[in-house]
């Protein structure tokens, strides 16, 4: 059975997760901007723990954003380098979906409204519903002002998670009212949830893409004043 | 030893394969000129975005063109600095991870060392010692090179780099981007006698440069004289003459002060034909010789990084999991291959630094 390795460096957390048979081996650390010192050491640690080599893997997964621009690029750069070196396909996974999957895992949520602090008075916003072992998107991901976020449809009991609920607590509370119960305003993405979402896609027949076809998702494209 | 070289320090994504026995096997380049043209200069975040899109395809392409399966690589070299932090990180992350997966060593090379050793890629390479003039959009420096890793800084720009002055001048004259070729083109039709611009810092001893005053002088002249096409050409000519004269005067002094008879010119401004003519004249009078890398290796490229990597990997290659970058990195801190290299100060290499979303 070939292993699956997932990597996330898109926020101030750094994490990796490795599926080796029935076991999932994980590393997670709040590193601030220290991903470049940490991520490959984490990969080595889980491989060593499982007694696997890169050549024993069947695929890679990575969070492809949105998140910190530099963090997104480190994760994609590392993933592309590993994929080119070991000739592996890659399954890119949304950072927001990964956060939602984490909320489902720890809180048993059925519907999750993720708001991640995007700085500059905005949040990365995405809504997800649980389906099977994973989550599916409800509406499109966007970078928006917290006073203009929109919940898709009505009737769901949404759980709110992500750093946006900490940074813009009052604005979001006013905007969303009782439709969202905030449970996890500090949640960051964790590669174990990226791994879970990638496995759902593999089980559904996805094969992943070549290294050069992994592209960052920034959401914010207004980066110059020109 | 066969090495993959990766350059992402500024606005060119370059990848090459160099073999220490067989020479350069392939090199691929993606220039971001179009991305930055409308801004008249490099926008760091856009540069980083372009690097991460182009690097993996270029690696694949370079290996194919070199007919080198990835498992035949002995090491990977990447530009560790100096340069733009976010751009450097893309190359460092990809290179270190690829080396990790292949279980081969990687090494972070100094961008300016790669440039000044680039003429060694040519069929008739200069012998050591030589004096190197590095002139690009980011750097203007004169370096005495006694051997690989034995560098003495003779002089450098105290403000704008020469290439930067070309870019800014082109922008204010409405000539387009990149400024070097644009000013050179316009200057061809210019009257060399109409304006005479100052030659900064040539009226005193020393090998340092300063170009920001020249830029201001150009701006003032342009405001005073208007923007008729002939006037623009005349100003471009006066500006280019002043820069080239200044560079030539300092090169002449450097050759005289060091007693060295070989001059190496590297960096994008080294592609300027008028500069080449002028330096040939300087050299002729001293029985010296000027060496250039081929034009495509004057500007940033992966070949020079792969080449420097071949020299640095045996002594300094590592399988380290951590990677860092050095946006500021003193060239003189380098040591000959195999010796310990002085690491830049902690504040100078900032992993993860750069714009954050």
TrEMBL record, chain B:
Residues covered by region (Disordered): 334-357
Enzyme class: transferase
Record-linked CDD domains: ASKHA_NBD_TsaD_bac
GO molecular function, one term: metal ion binding
Biased composition (Low complexity): 335-357
Catalytically driven reaction(s): L-threonylcarbamoyladenylate + adenosine(37) in tRNA = N(6)-L-threonylcarbamoyladenosine(37) in tRNA + AMP + H(+)
Domain (Gcp-like) ranges: 24-306
Annotated InterPro entries: ATPase_NBD, Gcp-like_dom, KAE1/TsaD, Peptidase_M22_CS, TsaD
Protein name: N(6)-L-threonylcarbamoyladenine synthase
Natural source organism: wastewater metagenome
């Amino acid at each position: 059975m070939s292993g699956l390795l997932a990597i996330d460096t898109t926020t101030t957390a750094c994490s990796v997760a490795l599926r080796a048979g029935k076991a999932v081996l994980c590393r997670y650390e709040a590193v601030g901007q220290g991903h470049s010192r940490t991520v490959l050491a984490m990969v080595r640690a889980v491989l060593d723990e499982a007694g696997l080599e890169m050549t024993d893997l069947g695929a890679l997964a990575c969070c492809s954003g949105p998140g910190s621009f530099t963090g997104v690029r480190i994760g994609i750069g590392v993933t592309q380098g590993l994929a080119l070196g070991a000739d592996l396909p890659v399954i890119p996974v949304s950072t927001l979906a990964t956060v939602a999957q984490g909320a489902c895992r720890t809180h048993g949520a059925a519907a999750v409204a993720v708001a991640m602090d995007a700085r500059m008075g905005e949040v990365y916003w995405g809504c997800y519903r649980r389906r099977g072992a994973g989550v599916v998107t409800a509406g499109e991901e966007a970078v928006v002002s917290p006073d203009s976020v929109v919940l898709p449809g009505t009737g769901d009991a949404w759980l709110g998670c992500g750093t946006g609920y900490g940074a813009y607590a009052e604005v979001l509370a006013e905007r969303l009212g009782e439709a969202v119960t905030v449970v996890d305003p500090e949640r960051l993405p964790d590669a174990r949830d990226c791994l879970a979402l990638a496995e759902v896609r593999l089980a559904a027949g996805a094969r992943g893409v070549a290294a050069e076809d992994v592209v960052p998702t920034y959401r914010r494209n207004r980066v110059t004043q020109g | 030893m066969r090495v993959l070289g990766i350059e992402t320090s500024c606005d060119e994504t370059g990848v090459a394969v160099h073999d220490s026995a067989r020479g350069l096997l392939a090199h691929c380049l993606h220039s971001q000129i179009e991305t930055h043209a409308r801004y008249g200069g490099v926008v760091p975040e856009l540069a980083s975005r372009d690097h991460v899109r182009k690097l993996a395809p270029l690696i694949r392409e370079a290996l194919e063109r070199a007919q080198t399966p990835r498992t035949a690589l002995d090491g990977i070299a990447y530009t560790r600095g100096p340069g733009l932090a976010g751009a450097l990180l893309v190359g460092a992350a990809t290179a270190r991870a690829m080396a990790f997966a292949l279980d081969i060593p990687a090494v972070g090379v100094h961008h300016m060392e790669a440039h000044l050793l680039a003429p060694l890629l040519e069929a008739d390479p200069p012998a050591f010692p030589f004096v190197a003039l590095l002139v690009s959009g980011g750097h203007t420096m004169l370096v005495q090179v006694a051997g690989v890793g034995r560098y003495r800084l003779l002089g450098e720009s105290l403000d704008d780099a020469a290439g930067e002055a070309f870019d800014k001048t082109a922008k204010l004259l409405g000539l387009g981007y990149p400024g070097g070729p644009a000013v050179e083109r316009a200057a061809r039709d210019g009257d060399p006698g109409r304006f005479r611009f100052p030659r900064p810092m040539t009226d005193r001893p020393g090998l340092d440069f300063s170009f920001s005053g020249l830029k201001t002088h150009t701006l003032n002249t342009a405001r005073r004289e208007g923007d008729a096409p002939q006037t623009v050409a005349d100003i471009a000519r006066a500006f280019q003459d002043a820069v080239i004269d200044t560079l030539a005067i300092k090169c002449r002094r450097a050759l005289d002060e060091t007693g060295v008879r070989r001059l190496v010119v590297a960096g994008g401004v080294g592609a300027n034909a008028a500069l080449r003519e002028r330096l040939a004249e300087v050299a002729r009078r001293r029985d010296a010789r000027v060496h250039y890398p081929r034009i495509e290796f004057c500007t940033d490229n992966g070949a020079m990084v792969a080449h420097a990597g071949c020299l640095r990997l045996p002594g300094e290659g590592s399988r380290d999991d951590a990677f860092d970058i050095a946006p500021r990195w003193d060239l003189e801190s380098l040591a000959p291959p195999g010796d310990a290299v002085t690491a830049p100060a902690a504040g100078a290499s900032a992993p993860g630094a750069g714009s954050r979303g």
